[in-house]
Amino acid sequence: MIPLAIVLSAVVAVATSAHLPVSTTKPQAQAAVDRGLFLYYAYDGDDAARSFERAAALDPRLAMAFWGVALASGPDLNTPMTADRFERGARAIRHAAALATDAGGRERDFITAMGRRYRGAFADWPADDDAYRDALLRLARESNDENVRLLAAEALVEGGGLAWSAGAPATEQTREALDLVTRVLRDDPTSAMANHLCIHLYDLAPDRAPALPCARRLDAAAFPSEAEHLAHMPAHYWIETGDYPAAVASSDRAFALLEQLPGGFDGEHARRYAKHDVGVGYSAAMMLGNYAVARVWAQRMDGVFDQAFDAVTALRFGRYADAYAADPSEFAGPSIRGWAALRLGRFAEARAIAKRVAAGNMALGYMPQLFLAGAAAADGKPDEAARWIDRARNNQRADFGGELIPLFPADEIAGALYLRHDDSTAAATAFTNALAAYPNDPRALYGLATALATQGQAAQAAATRARFQAEWKGADTGISDALP
């Protein structure tokens, strides 16, 4: 397998189109096929299907137009197969097969492989999808065709090709997908889909550095609004490697494209992607020290989740009076009010809220658990506080990975609690753990520097504080206020 690190890292102009030569004499039909394939590569299956359908209307004998509808009706990493999508795809590939005598050899290979995906009924989908994946992989091994390799890699990724263990791909699907994507990038670093899959393949890797050129290339491209997902993808890399300003910048570009979609935030694409993409931008902004920027993202969260995030944003930035005064119907409202009450010295009220929160739901999320940890610590119950922290940490490990990060990392909160109770050794361990999970977390860097200084480790403390100052650049909030 060719290491992705050898692929040229220069920023090149990523293509905002794709090309799949098909047997048609009508240029507009060819253009519609190409646009459909590009939109599929951007994980916009609905618009891709419409473009392939336009190609079929322009050239009713074009078998690959119907193949494209079947392709776009299938899943991607963010879109599951459904019975309705299956039926649309099955009808389309039957039509493609009936027209295949007019198609070229490579086109017939595509149609035959897709026919395996829709061979049985919807109930047979898992086995038939495996057969499709195997057929594409055989084609990819025999061919230098870029689209064959990309579609095979996509099928492998969908079939479990994102697993890593001990620093290496953990499954044959991951190894094969990585090899295919690397070969495409070696020959064509402008490929939008190869750069897209490159970032996904390294989402859970212990070393994401090989995906850096892919993030830079996608960041440098100017995509149409329907390809918003490609503009969002670099945020995965930046947030996973601790470059939170870059993650915010990528997310800003993606958000601008969401706003430009023909259907706006009510359209199919936005309904599928807006919550995730806005959530990634918001979580990156919440790691930094600029409250004004985080409030902009909180307002965007309000719009896509139909729930207010002002209170949790205020809490993150040490605006405890604002967090305390917020409507309790907001996200995690009771826990945020109780947490703010603790920091404002309203201990009796915080205890009463903690009692209600603990009694209200045994399957608590991490925000209530972190509040209850703080309440227990304030009551001089460190063991109980540690148990709540452990529960929150376990929740976060189960629910967050890759580009998804919690708004309040559990180890960061644990470190702050230990600092307040003069346990610098435990604080240093907790902050170190927070940084291992969320690189360059500035609150954890500040807390670690403080703990190290308390322990008399002056050189290490100074170096860590310098890292904190670099990450806190541009903040409008004092770190003493923002430390949880």
| Count of distinct strands | 2
Number of helices, counting only DSSP H or I runs of 4 residues or more: 26
User: How confident overall, as mean pLDDT?
Assistant: 93
Low-pLDDT segments: 1-9
Q: Which geometry do the CA atoms define?
A: elongated
User: What's the arrangement of strands in the largest beta sheet?
Assistant: 1-2
> What are the secondary-structure elements, in order, as H or E?
HHHHHHHEEHHHHHHHHHHHHHHHHHHH
Q: What structural class is derived from the secondary structure elements?
A: mainly alpha
Strand fraction equals under 5%
Helix fraction?
55-70%
Oligomeric state of this protein? single chain
Radius of gyration: 25 Å
Question: Sheet with the most strands?
Answer: 2 strands, antiparallel
Cα distance spanning the termini: 45 Å
Written overview of the protein:
The protein has helices spanning 27-41, 45-58, 63-73, 83-98, 105-117, 125-142, 146-158, 172-187, 192-201, 212-220, 228-232, 234-240, 244-260, 268-287, 291-305, 310-316, 320-325, 333-343, 347-360, 366-378, 382-399, 410-420, 424-437, 442-454, 458-471, 479-482, and strands at residues 164-165, 168-169. With 484 residues, it is an all-alpha fold. Helix 3 (63-73) runs antiparallel to helix 4, helix 12 (234-240) runs antiparallel to helix 13 and helix 14 runs antiparallel to helix 15. The protein starts with 26 loop residues before the first helix and ends with a helix. It is elongated, with a radius of gyration of 25 Å. The chain has a two-stranded antiparallel sheet.
